[in-house]
Amino acid sequence: MFSFSSKTERNAELRQDPITGKWVIISPQRAERPQEFDTRPRRIRHGPCPFCPGNEELTPPATLIKPNVSASPQEPSWKVRVVPNKYPALVDSEDCAIESGIYRGRTGLGVHEVLIETPRHVQGISDLTREEMLDVLEVLMSRLAALKSREHLRYVMVFKNVGPLAGASVEHTHSQIIATPVIPPTIEAELAGTGEFFRGHQSCIYCQIVQYEIAKAVRTVQITPHFLAMCPFAARFPYETWILPRQHNARFSDLERGLWGELIQITKDLIQRIEQTIPGVGYNVILHDAPLHDDVPFYHWHIEILPSTARPAGFEWGSGVHINSVFPEFAARSLREGQAS
Amino acid sequence: MFSFSSKTERNAELRQDPITGKWVIISPQRAERPQEFDTRPRRIRHGPCPFCPGNEELTPPATLIKPNVSASPQEPSWKVRVVPNKYPALVDSEDCAIESGIYRGRTGLGVHEVLIETPRHVQGISDLTREEMLDVLEVLMSRLAALKSREHLRYVMVFKNVGPLAGASVEHTHSQIIATPVIPPTIEAELAGTGEFFRGHQSCIYCQIVQYEIAKAVRTVQITPHFLAMCPFAARFPYETWILPRQHNARFSDLERGLWGELIQITKDLIQRIEQTIPGVGYNVILHDAPLHDDVPFYHWHIEILPSTARPAGFEWGSGVHINSVFPEFAARSLREGQAS
User: Fold this and answer.
1) Given an 8 Å threshold on Cβ–Cβ distance, is A308 in contact with B39?
2) Is the CB of residue B185 less than 8 Å away from at least one CB of chain A?
3) Mean predicted confidence (pLDDT) in A118-122
4) A13-182: which CATH architecture?
5) Among this protein's residues, is B248 annotated catalytic?
6) Which of B3, B10, B19 is most worth mutating to test chain A (most A CB atoms within 10 A of its CB)?
7) What is the reported pTM?
8) Start-end ranges of CATH 3.30.428.10 in chain A?
9) B118 and B173 Cβ atoms separated by less than 8 Å
10) What confidence tier does B7 reach under pLDDT thresholds 50, 70, 90?
11) Would you call A326 helix, strand, or coil by DSSP?
12) A186-337 classified as CATH 3.30.428.10
């Protein structure tokens, strides 16, 4: 079973660490990425942009397109395109358990898509217009609904990497969608924590955090009628910021359409504050959502924004403890006041 | 309590995420590092090397020195120096619980030291002689014994970052020692997993892995009479490799002196194999050891070596699931055969 001659001839596998139970994805397709074994610092790929209009044949055929119905013949015919990732972490192969002695895993059943947010070759959230972001949100909601209909998928992770230090290999602004047949450990830990708190207190711990932070006003960055942007008490990264709905809401896709504009505005404002405070910084934006099929009314969806100022090293990998050089109270004040670090 | 005017006037704090229970270290001293907010890729610091002989005043006063007793007046007077980290993650301050509403933490009581492994300005393990590594091991064992006598410290993490991509900011070869008043989550997870396996099977899961891997011989890289170097089944990183003692042994400091030379040899061989397979690669070496004072006979110390080929991005931070582009079976074969990737 484990004899093979090339690193790419096998399908992806999800494997479970027999000691800790943590999952990893072994995905030989990723090794075909142009930069995968370049040991120099990650840079943006050269050559024609695969996400620009006119280069559509450089990506796999689109899964979903939001057309630009009023486009003139000179304009791109689409507003948003969702395409399968050319170097997918998981592929939609047969779901098959792997057992080998003390080890367990399964074949890498899943979905890995790229959401190209605009035909314009721009880099990040601050370059997108409110209208473009509304289109992105609409397309994202429709992908989440489609993936939810697939019973074997248990979780959808939506994220965005901006800048080479944040892991982006294509400059043209895009988000990624990875759907997995297991619930990722980070989300498992949040579900365990929120579930336990709910059983003990009959309330949601994220709701408690929202109330406490708004009352204290030391880690808050921006407050709108329905959302809070704040630096978390135990921030892992300098200037790490979360956006939470102020009203309890377990599932992102239950967000009413009337609030999309407000969510977009606070997100754009926050990214602008981060870019003003740490010029040139890259960042990851990660949606923390409820699992697709589990009934977890005690969960509270939110967005985490992680600026790429620090690189984890031996201590972080060995311990799982992050060292953050900036107090979240200081970070929040800088972001509130637009003060440079 | 949370009003302060600069980001460095407060002591470090250990803070616990109220949802997941995970610890982070908030350490404003780290922000004073020359490169902390350089958003360009990490590079090696310029200027006189703080770890070279003659520059001893550039580090805080040494905690421990192994002198070179037979040095001529032209030679450096020391073989190994242990100094407090100039930019410590934790400082040995008063241990004090922090309570603020729903949040918990404690002041950053701990120790952060640098072990300068040789007076020679060389970069990594493959540049060290066997004799130098024996000196390093002797000094390390003596620091572990000294830190063990301090009851409020619960864990010592020993690690080494080589190369800028692995997080090293000083080129001159050195290891780091961080002692914490809490058991890090990664080690907690290993203790939980080994403890549970032991209760169910009356044996050590790492011992089972060692036996299974030696019998299968697909993920083994090198086998010596008392040690095994192997790529783990659920490797998080391309070419991730572990070194395990073949005989059960919970605690690194219980390793008999007669085996030090053999451990040094397999480590040097392995690093050389990695450097041959991925030229120019950096790496983290991390000792996974038992906690200082807990009785955990079911644990099994080991060393994890993580080559820095991939940078975690949004998916990894959001999910806790690593995507590894190289099957460990392929990595092991390449490392065994010295075959380039």
Assistant:
1) yes
2) yes
3) 97
4) 2-Layer Sandwich (3.30)
5) no
6) B19
7) 0.92
8) 13-182, 186-337
9) yes
10) very low
11) coil
12) yes
